[in-house]
Amino acid sequence: MQDAARPRMLGFALLWGAILLHNASVAACPSSCHCMDKNGLTVVQCMSRNLERIPPDLPRDTVVLLLAANHITHIPNHAFRELHYLQELDLSNNDIETVDMGAFLGVSDSLLVLDLSNNHIQSVPKEAFARLRAKISLSNNPWHCECTLQEVLRELRLDPETVNEVICHTAVQEEYAGKPVIQVLDSGINFCNFHHKTTDVAMFVTMFGWFTMVIVYVIYYVRHNQEDARRHLEYLKSLPSNSQISKDFDTISTVL
């Protein structure tokens, strides 16, 4: 009898533990969000809540986090580090301008979908998306197309449905502004070459400037010394000579 009842008691304990865990998650739900259980997965819905930052007290078992249509401007380092089960993250339609290099640390292994579309992002550090395996949407942001963005995109798995909506708002070469980034890169353009050329030109201009300053200084030094020498020579010429002094002495002797 006891052996037969033991599996039932174990099953009841596991069920009760799951209920407590779910209740704890709901209880830990941020006041500005709505937390729900969907097919056994914790979904945190914080859409259109006028949020200006990512809530810090999110349930640790969050699998889907919806933060779209708010006023978030910044994704700080370790923003989601406690959410080890996070699979889907929607940050679209916010006012995001900056993404810290450690913004997604802690979720790189679990995250499957990341939506950053319709924000104000111009550039991101290369480290920001390091090791992310998620399908990422970056469309409708005012991207500045240059070497760093090229290196970032090379490592990402972009959403194929929105990849052509990742547009160069500005670029190191103005002729590429307004064009899809992938289209430009597929045509063989390498923004990193422009970066190196720009750096080389800057170094050349700097070196030329220093060289010009040295030449000007040398010319000034020579001319200044020439002027001093001329004045010294004129001074020497103005002094009475030895012969003149001797003649004057003889004249005085004769008179005496």
UniProtKB/TrEMBL annotation:
<dbReference type="GO" id="GO:0005886">
    <property type="term" value="C:plasma membrane"/>
</dbReference>
<dbReference type="Pfam" id="PF13855">
    <property type="entry name" value="LRR_8"/>
</dbReference>
<dbReference type="InterPro" id="IPR003591">
    <property type="entry name" value="Leu-rich_rpt_typical-subtyp"/>
</dbReference>
<dbReference type="Pfam" id="PF00560">
    <property type="entry name" value="LRR_1"/>
</dbReference>
<dbReference type="InterPro" id="IPR032675">
    <property type="entry name" value="LRR_dom_sf"/>
</dbReference>
<keyword id="KW-0677">Repeat</keyword>
<dbReference type="InterPro" id="IPR001611">
    <property type="entry name" value="Leu-rich_rpt"/>
</dbReference>
<keyword id="KW-1133">Transmembrane helix</keyword>
<feature type="signal peptide">
    <location>
        <begin position="1"/>
        <end position="28"/>
    </location>
</feature>
<feature type="transmembrane region" description="Helical">
    <location>
        <begin position="201"/>
        <end position="222"/>
    </location>
</feature>
<protein>
    <recommendedName>
        <fullName>Leucine-rich repeat-containing protein 3</fullName>
    </recommendedName>
</protein>
<keyword id="KW-0732">Signal</keyword>
<keyword id="KW-0433">Leucine-rich repeat</keyword>
<dbReference type="Pfam" id="PF01462">
    <property type="entry name" value="LRRNT"/>
</dbReference>
<keyword id="KW-0472">Membrane</keyword>
<comment type="similarity">
    <text>Belongs to the LRRC3 family.</text>
</comment>
<feature type="domain" description="LRRNT">
    <location>
        <begin position="28"/>
        <end position="64"/>
    </location>
</feature>
<keyword id="KW-0812">Transmembrane</keyword>
<dbReference type="InterPro" id="IPR050541">
    <property type="entry name" value="LRR_TM_domain-containing"/>
</dbReference>
<dbReference type="InterPro" id="IPR000372">
    <property type="entry name" value="LRRNT"/>
</dbReference>
